[in-house]
Amino acid sequence: MPIDVMMPFYGDVGQFRQAVTSVLDQRDGDLRLVVIDDCYPDPEPAHWLASLTDPRVHYLRNETNLGVNGNFRRCVDLVEADHFVVMGCDDVMLPDYVATVRRLARHHPDAAVIAPGVEVIDDRDQVVHPLGDRIKSLLTPRTSTEPVVLRGEAMATSLYHGNWTYFPSLLWRTDPVRDVGFRPGLDIVLDLALLVDLAARGGALVHDPSVVFRYRRHQGSVSSVQAVDGRRFAEENAFFAEEARRCADRGWSRAARAARLHATSRLNHAQSRALATAGRLRRASPTA
């Protein structure tokens, strides 16, 4: 059965072409690529996809703009395979991504989600190591040869300390994700919410450090824009407060404590505020 690669699209056309090409160039090409256009104003991406004449490529355009959460939910509704990826339209699959995650899913058939190794790139395709991603690396479970398997409270606690996963790289098992679904109203932490909801249902997360995916980090991302004006942290703070209550009710004391602290979110908030203050000072300086 093919893996479904669902690609919500609204963004840079050049990076979109690169993302699509990286999917179609997989060494294991048993996949279906579904592009869901969220009313992008330029018809060029649709015309380019049609010119590929690849039967694995399917293009759909939303009647109205659904936004991040709505388009992700539509992606899940349109999945036909047992496993799927919701890939960013600016990210890059390395050639062995599909083969790697398929092997992991085969060896761990009950896993709700597979998290492969990821490297971060910038707008110029250069590998970069921003502070936030260095912290993610420190929080990622360590493994020597065998993949790490997390479930239940241990999985939730690890993710509340800091979401070390990269959502566009994750391979999801369709049935448990459909049972849980994305929580309405979330844009920044919707992936974390889905992961911890799966953990609460007994779902497992399997992590293998083999780097097979490139995640693009740039200032135009939803999280970067919302970090500047504070919306990101308002959503995160409300989410973690509710999670602490849920975990306490469930008897997950370690997870509840980790959710109350949400240390990496607080650190990221402090860093963003410091950078914003420095920027304002530079603009106010007569020598700037």
TrEMBL record:
Keywords assigned by UniProt, alphabetized: Glycosyltransferase, Transferase
Family annotation (Pfam families): Glycos_transf_2
Glycosyltransferase 2-like domain span: 5-131
GO molecular function, one term: glycosyltransferase activity
EC number(s) from the headed UniProt entry: 2.4.-.-
InterPro entries: Glyco_trans_2-like, Glycosyltransf_2, Nucleotide-diphossugar_trans
Record protein name field: Glycosyltransferase family 2 protein
